[in-house]
Amino acid sequence: MRVVIIGGTGHIGSYLVPMLVRAGHSAVCITRGASAPYFADPAWEHVEHCHADRDAQDKAGTFGALVAGFKADAVIDLMCFTPDSARHLLAALGGSGTHLLHCGSVWVYGPRSGALHDEAAPRAPYGVYAEWKAQIEALLLAQDAAPATVIHPGQIAGRYWWPINPAGTLQPAVFAQLARGAPVALPDGGGATLHFAHASDIARAFLHALDARSLARGHSFNVASPQPVTLRDYAQAVAQWHGRQWQPAAGDWRRYDSPQQIQFAEYMVKYNTGCCSGKAQRLLGWRATYDGLEAAGEGILHLLAPRA
Length: 308
Description:
By secondary structure, the chain is α/β, with parallel strands linked by helices. It has 12 helices and 11 strands.
């Protein structure tokens, strides 16, 4: 098939585009041209590249026509974050028969207080990002102008970037603290969960959905590691990878972070992320190859490693 990938040099696309080429598909990669793929692969020599500023072209009303002009069998959209952007692309693809695959988020389900969320769970998103992702999902799956599929990844992890840390923030320094055995405070004692998904596993889910178009159209699928991990177990694992033990820091965890990081951590704790990927297993034949700590650890250990 001829496949257009929007955002093909990012976290997921860096794995997905070479997978598509090796599977025999013709790939067109649309990016702003500001970054290279995360790692080298001979498959990139067979990829057609198109540089475009989506935000600017969405405002001008031209991005959808650009994508539709490639007359692809499928479009994999890894970089759609607003309902208006989704509507614009959908309008351009309507009636063409092009299969539109959208990258959503497990955050569409909202905070979890008990069982893992499956795709039948009600949507109760918290925060603008999650609210817009939920609106995009509803838009795509309620229409019949173009066959559509939504993939909801867990917290993306992998070799070339820092995952969310055990303190529920994006500060890489927390990993270094755990590696040297320094005390680290965890929000609410570390009982909240993160549910990681390795970027290569997410990429394979898109490939499976592409190959199983008749089964995948009109559906959303969660894709994540077999089980979520608590912040407490996550902290302990990072420390143990370096021959240490996690030491809780004394006092309220909020005293150790900036207001922005506190707000982000509270967001993570409120979500308490956890989802079930059984539907993707049953309908698409997809299974994760990384568990959550393996997925997060691949990036942490690689980026913490001393450089020659």
